[in-house]
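call fold(seq) -> tokens
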Amino acid sequence: MAHYAELDENNVVLRVNVVHNDITTIDGVEDEQRGIDFLDGLYPDSGTWIQTSYNHNMRTRYAAIDYAYDSDADAFITPQPFPSWTLDEDTTEWEAPEPMPADADTVIYVWDEDTTSWIEWDENAS
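ret:
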């Protein structure tokens, strides 16, 4: 099965659809354009379709609703988790303004946007 993300005019994912291999494959080779043509015929008023990989074999990660497609990086980008975080253009991952504390393997930390810092999680806090 091939998966395709529909993008809006800002390259934000609206939905992801599955297209059967019988449609996308010719002579044993998958062809992205065949899936796009099929979806354009099925949904003539839809946005732009682009293939995504459930196994992360292309475009960095599997697309999901509200992810953005960056054509320069040829990657789907997750939504920005906090306003203070910046996108690493090389990895297409969001990064906090400061690294997580070194003991994060034994202590649970959460991001506090008000202080722009990692704070130890308190299970009793409301």
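Residues 2-79 form one domain.
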